[in-house]
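Box 4.2: Ligand-aware structure prediction
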Amino acid sequence: MSIQLGDTAPNFTQQSTEGEIRFHDWLGDSWGVLFSHPKNFTPVCTTELGAAAKLKPEFDKRNVKILGLSVDPLENHEAWSKDIEETQGAKLNFPLLADADKKVSNLYGMIHPNASDTMTVRSVFIIGPDKKVKLTITYPASTGRNFDEVLRVIDSLQLTAKHKVATPVNWKDGQDCIIVPAVTDEEATTLFPKGFKKLKPYLRTTPQPNK
Ligand code: BEZ
């Protein structure tokens, strides 16, 4: 059975470029992004890891730890990180799991045998401070991820964890939000002092409450 939203993120201990990682302990009270890349010394993966390294300050700002993974051995990660720095202009500044025994890949269903039985697909798991899985996305090896989208989802998840709102299509931090249907108009008046617009009884918008 694949990992579903709301499941506890499986715990593991595995080697990484920053030493052994005991996943739940390593996460502590932070949010986490665990993502797999199919193979070291491949072009798309090289660009992705460079992009993730450049965005690390944005993840830090949101109290999110990022953790990469491939099924390559540790020595390989260390050699490849020099290429990432040289070609992408960014030094790896987060750990990469060396999952040569496929322990974590199998635990998280990152190997899709009908795509490849040796490499992982590009999986993304966003994990909350409660260790529950909040989002999963799967991309094929041929498509590099959009890490700005990962940050956008984190903004939405962190907002909706604290306020009784949801975020509409293509929402970005700072834009109007949707009041969840369970909130009555009367409650909305108290909960959202900036006011709200009622387009339909089920479609009410309000300025982002934490801005
Ligand atoms: C890449 O990162 O470029 C890649 C990796 C595995 C298969 C195809 C592309």
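In the box above, the bound molecule is benzoic acid. The domain at 163-206 is CATH 3.30.1020.10 (Antioxidant, Horf6; Chain A, domain 2).
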